[in-house]
């Protein structure tokens, strides 16, 4: 039999390997225990299904507005007339509470379509549409906020314009929101 010498027991390389192997196994074990908890924080399948929605705009005539739901919130989609577009672009932006050009709120080449979250920026009410309010856009009757044909706040307590969600045109008559 081979005898172990006292110097072999004190070899730091052997001890370091054992420590590293133990730490690696401990980290793997902790990860295996924590993974179900971390995975439970991912959105559920029903929530992911609401992450985006496609809308067919074929039947929406100039001057009409539709409302769709996206992520549990109403979205206003309006097919603006040439007159409404001219009116929105004629506004002096510096005079607005939340200055923003009309061209910043629409997609280039698709200026006739305005897509906005239908949630008042004051207290989260749903404004009335179809040329409501003093500026022929949207009006929140709860607290008196008036929005223009570009969804910009013009009068009332709302601090900001109606929000523009992330959206894109998939073709000439369909948009994808989200």
Question: Briefly, what is this?
Answer:
The chain has 178 residues and is an alpha+beta fold. It has helices at 6-9, 12-39, 45-49, 82-89; strands spanning 53-56, 65-70, 73-79, 113-117, 128-132, 137-140, 145-147, 153-155, 167-171, 174-177. It contains 4 helices and 10 strands; from the N terminus they run αααβββαβββββββ.
Question: What this model shows, in words?
Answer:
- The protein is elongated and about 90 Å long.
- With about 180 residues, the protein is an alpha+beta fold.
- The protein has four helices and ten strands.
- Strand 6 (about 135-140) and strand 7 (about 145) form a beta hairpin.
- It has a four-stranded antiparallel sheet, with no helix packed on it. Strands 1-10-9 form a three-stranded antiparallel sheet, with no helix packed on it. A three-stranded antiparallel sheet has the order 2-3-4, with no helix packed on it.
Outline the secondary-structure elements.
Layout: H1 6-9, H2 12-39, H3 45-49, E1 53-56, E2 65-70, E3 73-79, H4 82-89, E4 113-117, E5 128-132, E6 137-140, E7 145-147, E8 153-155, E9 167-171, E10 174-177
Antiparallel strand pairs: 1-10, 2-3, 3-4, 5-6, 6-7, 7-8, 9-10
Give the overall pLDDT as a whole number.
87
The computed structural class is: alpha+beta
What's the total helix number? 4
Give unreliable regions as ranges: none
How much of the sequence is in beta strands? 25-35%
Assembly annotation:
single chain
Order of helices and strands: HHHEEEHEEEEEEE
Number of E-type strands: 10
**Side-by-side strand order of the widest sheet:** 5-6-7-8
Q: Output the radius of gyration.
A: 29 Å
Roughly how many Å apart are the termini?
74 Å
Give the overall shape, derived from the CA principal axes.
elongated
Q: Percent of residues in helical segments? A: 25-40%
Largest sheet: 4 strands, antiparallel
